[in-house]
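Could you please consider the sequence and fold following this short note?
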Amino acid sequence: MAASVARCTQCGADDVHEVQARSAFWHDDRLVVVEDIPALQCAHCGEQYYDDATIVALDLLRGRGFEPAAARRHVSVAVFSLAGATGCVEAEAGEAP
């Protein structure tokens, strides 16, 4: 494995490496996934760090509205609800879990 390039500011581990990351974002009522994001990632806690150029590129992509026609591919996503789930506090009870 390549040598660590930084120390993680989240957990303090000296195990941060360059990766091509994938992240999900909400845009209006759509969930979109962006792949091939250059990042640094902590192998211990998973925290990711992006440089300024990457943040600008993500902002520009978001500003264009994540055009569906420009997507590399489309995926189906399962949606779950905690409402009424066994062992979960019901929202109307007003209690914190």
Remarks:
- Residues 41 and 48 are 4 Å apart (CA to CA).
- The chain is about 10% helix and 30% strand.
